Structure formats: structure tokens, C-alpha cells
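R.M. (postdoc): so does anyone remember the format we settled on? I'll just put the C-alpha cells first.
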């Protein structure tokens, strides 16, 4: 091990004070097209675990440096990529032409001039953990390196750049050789340590030397990896620190890899939930996004999807084939099979389904029931109220203890505007009623079945709005006989 440039006091003490004062930026390589995905969507916006690849990397980086010190290098479909991640409050650097990873960093000269060091991450390697980025930063400072790279020893190194060390066991790296540039001798040497594609650079030496990169290689690109040999020759320290877990440096190049990494994340999430006390039957069939929270003693049946920012309380049961997105469920909620929830809020002890469709803004009260083929949108359904069968309830405020008969429709749309239906406590709406909004049904009112209600109903009143029934004695019999006689002739 070479010790020449080690300073006193002990390295760790130096690194500690240095990490507090040195200014770090993060640059994320995200300008490439991702040709092998064969997609109109830029590679870094493809999703795993319900989140774009680039967002995974940003989330990990945000715990190492503040968002304003993170820069995404964008190029292919730049506007689209920017729109998708701008809410993070990060900066952007444009690389109009993608002329290689080295060229991408050349574009960052101005943005990075106020920093001491830059951590370079890859927008297509989404499993990188915050701890590993911190490991790279700390090792870089501890070794006073101009360039530090994260390495790995995967079972099959094919396709990766290989790390050449000064001598066996040495800290110092002399070169990174891309797969296509390996000499026959190097190929035979079976170089197993690979460049994972994550780096730390001291900003000053990076930009004094980066213009010396050239494009004389298999791809005709400026390789960032060539900085290793450049620095090494110029007597700057280049070191490598191995990742603790080969798995987290995996990049995505094809949709097959996309599916594999997605499955890994889903599997990881299910295990986390199960270890925290949630029962999941056949977890391999469930799709649960990373941000979803589920309290202990809730049971999730096969083929359930829990997406976005969904939060589910304790003692719930989510039965098969339900898809719940960005919704909040209290405790003891039963979701029967086949329900779809989107931006809904369901209170304790409520019962949904089978086959209920809760659209955005649905607020279901404590112990309320929403039954089969009931669609709700922007409604409040009060405590203990029931809409058990075949209804559309939209833009409505419904009180407590209300019974909504089968087939009830709130007619909320007049062709131009949406109007509101207000239903007081204890109202009984008979089956097959249409409530033409704007309309108000007073507390404890009673609506006769099959009414088309167009005027407000006072408290405690009965509204019947349908034609009066007429019975014509013997009419059916006479009709039958007349028809039979006509047929004989
Ligand atoms: C790169 C490394 C290789 C390493 C591997 C790890 C180089 C030359 N090689 O190879 O040593 O083993 O990563 O996965 O760096 N990008 C831009 N602008 C460009 C070109 C690329 O932003 O002009 C972005 C890509 O979108 C991608 C990242 O840089 O996110 C890496 O580029 P890619 O072409 O995938 O490099 P690899 O061939 O994987
Ligand atoms: Ca790659």
C-alpha cells in the first residue's frame, strides 16, 4: 500500500473535519437515450417500484446533499425529463449532443465551479443507496483523492469497464478499461473488479484536466473513465472503494432488466411489510409501491395493488384484485374483491365492495358501506350511511345514517356545469331515484322509490315524484285473447 501522500493526524480525523467543510455537489448522468429500451419515453423516466429511475437516484442523493446542490445532466427529451423531476428543486445542465460520459461532465464546468467535489451518479442505476454514496464521499476525502470510483466484483463482469490497480492490493487505480478496449492479454488476465459507474472527483483537478480527454476509442466518445489514466499519469491519486452489495450497482438497459429490478423492489417492500406485522398471502402476486404504509395486523390477499402514497391502518382486510392508489384507509376497513380506489379517504370500520369504484375526493365515513357497482366521486358519505348497490354518487354531501337505495343516481351535470346534492342525516332514498342537482334533501326525509327529484325536500317530508300507478282490471287477459284470436285467422 502506498503511503506517500498520507497526512497527519490520522486519516479519519482529517476526513471528519473535511467532510464538514468541503462543498459537495451531485451530478447525475441522465442525458442518454436508452436505445435498447426501444421506447419513446426517455430511459430515466421508465419506472420501477412505481417511481422513475431518475427519481430513485435523486431520492438517494437528497439525503447526502441538499436538493439545490444536485444537478441532473439532461439531453435526450430534456424538457420531458426536466418536467418530471423539477419538483425536487434540483438544478439542470443541458448536454445537447450526447458525446459520452466525459463530455457530459464537461458541460458542468460552470455549474460546479463553486464546489470542492462532485459525486457523479448514473440516472439508470436506481438501486444505489444513500449509505453507498456517503461511503464514496468519505473514502474520497479520507484518501485525499482526485478521483474515487465505486467498484464491484459481480459474478459476470462482461460489458463493464475493468479497474486496473497499481499492484495487487494497492489502493491506487491506474486505469479503467472499457470492455471493447480490453487487449487479448487483459482479457485473459480475467480482471474481475469492475467500474460501477459512480465517482467522486475533486472539482479543480477535474476541470483542469478534463479537456485532455479524447475520442480515440471504440465508440468515438469522450469517456469519463479515461480520467483515471489521465490523473494517474499526472500523479494525482485515483482510488476505488468496493460496493458492499453488487446488487445496488445494477443498471438498466433493457425492459427485461427493468422487470427484474422492479420485481426485486416489490419483493423487498413486501418483506419489509411482513416483518413489520402485515400478513400478505402470495406476496409475489402483489404490487406495492415503495411509499405505501400499512399498519400491523392488516391482511392483504393475493393480486392486490397498493400504489402511490396509500396509507392503510390496522386490522384491515384488502381482498383480492383491489387496486388502491393514493388513498387513506383507517382501521378495521374491509375492502372486498375488485375495488378501485383513487385519492379516496375511508374511515374506520367502513366496508367497500365487491366492485366499488371510489374516484378522487371520495370521503367515506366511519362504518359506512359502499357496495357492488357503486361509483363515487367528490362526495362525503356520513357515519354509518349505506349505498349498497348500483349507484352513482358524485358531488354530494350525504349525512349520517342515510340509506341510499339501489340504483340511485345523483344527476350532477347539466351538460355545462356540475352541481351539488346535499342529503341530510337519516334520509331514506328509495331505489332507482334520480336526484337532479342542485338539490337538498332535508334531515330524515323519505324519497319514494323511482322518483325523479328536481325540487328541494323539507326535513321529515315524503317526496314522491313519479306517475301515479293505474291498475286496469282484466286488461292483460283481454289482450291475450284478442291476440290468440287474430293468430287463428
Ligand atoms: C459506463 C462506464 C463503464 C461502467 C458502466 C457501469 C463509461 C465510458 N463507461 O458504461 O466503465 O462499467 O458505465 O454501468 O463511462 N450519458 C450521458 N451523456 C452521454 C453519454 C451517457 O448523460 O453523452 C449517461 C447515460 O444516460 C447513462 C450514463 O451516462 O445514464 C452511463 O452511460 P452508458 O452509455 O450507459 O455507459 P455504459 O456503457 O454503461
Ligand atoms: Ca449503462
Amino acid at each position: 500500500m502506498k503511503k506517500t501522500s498520507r497526512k497527519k493526524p490520522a486519516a479519519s480525523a482529517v476526513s471528519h473535519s473535511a467532510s464538514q467543510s468541503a462543498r459537495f455537489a451531485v451530478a447525475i448522468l441522465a442525458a442518454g437515450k436508452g436505445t435498447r429500451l426501444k421506447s419513446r419515453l426517455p430511459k430515466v423516466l421508465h419506472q420501477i417500484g412505481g417511481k422513475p429511475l431518475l427519481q430513485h437516484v435523486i431520492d438517494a442523493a437528497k439525503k447526502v446533499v441538499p436538493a439545490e446542490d444536485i444537478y441532473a445532466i439532461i439531453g435526450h427529451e430534456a424538457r420531458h425529463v426536466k418536467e418530471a423531476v423539477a419538483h425536487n428543486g434540483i438544478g439542470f445542465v443541458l448536454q445537447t449532443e450526447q458525446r459520452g460520459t466525459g463530455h457530459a461532465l464537461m458541460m458542468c464546468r460552470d455549474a460546479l465551479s463553486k464546489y470542492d467535489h462532485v459525486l457523479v451518479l448514473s440516472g439508470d442505476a436506481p438501486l444505489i443507496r444513500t449509505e453507498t454514496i456517503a461511503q464514496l464521499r468519505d473514502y474520497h476525502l479520507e484518501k485525499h483523492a482526485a478521483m474515487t470510483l465505486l467498484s464491484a466484483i459481480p459474478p459476470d463482469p462482461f460489458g463493464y469497464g475493468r479497474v486496473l490497480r497499481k499492484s495487487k492490493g494497492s489502493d491506487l487505480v491506474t486505469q479503467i478499461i472499457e470492455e471493447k478496449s480490453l487487449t487479448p492479454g487483459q482479457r485473459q488476465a480475467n480482471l474481475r473488479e469492475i467500474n460501477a459507474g459512480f465517482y467522486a472527483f475533486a472539482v479543480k483537478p477535474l476541470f483542469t484536466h478534463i479537456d485532455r480527454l479524447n475520442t480515440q476509442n471504440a465508440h468515438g466518445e469522450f469517456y469519463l473513465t479515461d480520467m483515471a489514466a489521465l490523473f494517474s499519469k499526472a500523479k494525482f491519486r485515483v482510488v476505488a472503494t468496493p460496493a458492499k452489495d453488487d446488487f445496488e450497482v445494477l443498471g438498466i438497459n433493457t425492459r427485461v432488466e427493468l422487470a427484474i429490478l422492479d420485481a426485486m423492489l416489490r419483493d423487498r417492500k413486501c418483506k419489509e411489510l411482513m416483518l413489520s406485522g402485515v400478513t400478505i398471502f402470495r406476496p409475489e402476486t402483489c404490487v406495492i409501491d415503495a411509499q405505501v404504509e400499512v399498519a400491523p395486523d392488516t391482511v392483504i390477499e393475493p393480486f392486490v395493488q397498493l400504489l402511490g402514497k396509500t396509507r392503510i391502518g390496522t386490522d384491515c382486510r384488502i381482498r383480492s384484485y383491489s387496486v388502491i392508489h393514493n388513498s387513506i384507509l383507517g382501521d378495521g376497513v374491509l375492502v372486498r374483491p375488485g375495488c378501485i380506489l383513487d385519492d379516496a379517504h375511508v374511515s374506520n370500520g367502513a366496508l367497500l365492495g365487491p366492485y366499488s369504484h371510489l374516484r378522487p375526493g371520495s370521503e367515506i365515513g366511519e362504518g359506512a358501506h359502499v357496495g357492488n357497482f357503486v361509483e363515487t366521486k367528490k362526495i362525503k358519505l356520513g357515519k354509518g350511511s349505506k349505498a349498497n348497490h348500483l349507484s352513482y354518487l358524485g358531488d354530494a354531501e350525504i349525512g349520517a345514517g342515510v340509506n341510499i337505495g339501489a340504483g340511485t343516481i345523483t344527476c350532477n351535470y347539466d351538460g355545462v356545469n356540475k352541481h351539488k346534492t346535499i342529503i341530510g342525516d337519516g334520509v331514506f332514498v328509495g331505489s332507482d331515484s334520480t336526484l337532479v342537482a342542485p338539490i337538498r334533501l332535508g334531515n330524515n326525509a323519505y324519497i319514494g322509490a323511482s322518483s325523479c327529484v328536481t325540487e328541494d325536500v323539507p326535513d321529515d317530508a315524503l317526496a314522491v315524484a313519479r306517475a301515479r300507478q293505474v291498475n286496469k282490471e282484466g286488461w292483460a287477459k283481454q289482450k291475450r285473447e284478442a291476440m290468440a284470436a287474430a293468430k287463428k285467422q
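R.M.: ...and that's the designed sequence above, right after the C-alpha cells. Also worth knowing: The chain has a mean pLDDT of 94. The radius of gyration is 32 Å.
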